[in-house]
Amino acid sequence: MFSRIGIIGAGAMGRGIAQLFAAAGQQVWLYDARPEAVAEALAFNRELLERNVAKGRMTAEQLAATLARMQPAHALAELAGCDLLIEAIVENLEAKQALFVELEGLVGAEAVLASNTSSLSVTCIAAACRRPERVAGFHFFNPVPLMKLVEVVRGERTAAQVIERLVRLAEQAGHFPAVTPDTPGFLVNHAGRAYGTEALRILSEGIASAEQIDRILRDGPGFRMGPFELFDLTGLDISHAVMESVHGQFYQDPRYTPSYQAAQRVAAGLLGRKSGQGYYRYDNGQQIRPAEPRREAVAVDRPFWLDSRDPELRGRVAALLHGAGALLEPDAEPSARAICLLTPLGEDASSMIARLALPAARCIALDPFSDFDRRRVLMRQPALDPALEAQACQALGGDGVPVEVINDSPGFVSQRVIASIVNLGCEIAQKGIAEPQTLERAVQLALGYPKGPLGFAAHYGAARILTILQGLQLCYGGEPRYRPSPWLRRRVQLGLPLATPDRPDA
């Protein structure tokens, strides 16, 4: 274990790391090129910990002991006796390399040098050092004491014992250590590329508005925040820069293609909460969320026909229609007056209508991924009679649950986003970036998803996810953005859980 920890950089991350390890019983020294930054950081931590005492989360004695373990360092030379140095300075490769070269000349031969970098290559940082085997990534998330995850990043030449020591330190401090190789975005920023990136694609195609996409993903899969709310919270300039960085580091792999619209909004200064306007407007930091549009009530004088033979889905739909005074036809083919409800997976309504030779003016799609108790999602297509769309909304929303109507798209909104998340998670497992269990826990801890990628697949069905991806790829002319991961395809073909390793004895 480490006896003395030095932290370089007293910003939000550095002060958070100092508080975390001091509270865990480690002796910590905090240094910054600006001496006043260290004083500000220690004062900030003191105030934060005093609030914990006031709330009964720690005693006065624990407070005093924790504060005593956080000491200022007035010069880098004062860190010479540390056996772990954690760098948390600006995200600039040259600056980090220069710092590590200087630190290497200060500390003993067994000391570990760790970088809190979120986007730079640990291998490249270590390349400037004489002993790159003692350099690793130790990437925390803000706020450090509350976000119970740290990525322990193994550079190409990092020694195994260095990773082991950092893992034990993280566990002692109550954080989950996600060990990952040095790849673009490491684990969390890599796994998180699907959520917002696919939402931006949906927005750019005019399928739904930002507000609609957020509502659908909150009320369907159960995300705490919609992707556009999240962009506004973190700042679109930061999120877009990460998207561009990951896309470039993976040599323009189409899975990670950023949005031109996001770039335009960044140029316009529409960054989110910090600029007062992003995808939403803000007043004193509070989001001004537009009211959902209200529809005029209409008479429902048509029967409905549902393409799905799934008894559970038919029962739910029949009950909803019955409550609105409408009938669900039992026949395999629709009558001449029926409004046809289609339930495509990864296919747009137009393609399904053409494939089944159905009357386009009477066809509207219903997303089977919707949580019918919270929000139902319908998908129109260009030939739909608007009067029949209004009847469908009335019949399916008669009990007061909101009905969202979007434009034609392969995979609606939830299907596309969830399938993209699952597919990217499977690629991470395929590439050996993380074990499936590590992937699941890291994504939930750091990104706040209701489920990890493989958990989403288990909930919705891995075979259905594969069908959605195949439908998306077909609809977009074989676009490689939606190519199914071999990890996903093989396990679906063999009827195995997605967490199944490649080696039976692994």
From TrEMBL:
Species of origin: Stutzerimonas stutzeri (Pseudomonas stutzeri)
Molecular-function annotations in GO: 3-hydroxybutyryl-CoA dehydrogenase activity; NAD+ binding
Annotated protein name in UniProt:
3-hydroxyacyl-CoA dehydrogenase
Which E.C. number(s) belong to this protein?
A: 1.1.1.157
Q: Which residues form the 3-hydroxyacyl-CoA dehydrogenase C-terminal domain?
A: 185-282, 411-495
Broadest EC class assigned to this enzyme: oxidoreductase
Q: Which UniProt keyword terms apply here? A: NAD, Oxidoreductase
> Could you confirm whether the keyword NAD appears in this record?
yes
Keyword field contains Oxidoreductase: yes
- GO term, biological process aspect, one: fatty acid beta-oxidation
- According to the entry, every stretch annotated as the 3-hydroxyacyl-CoA dehydrogenase NAD binding domain falls at 5-180
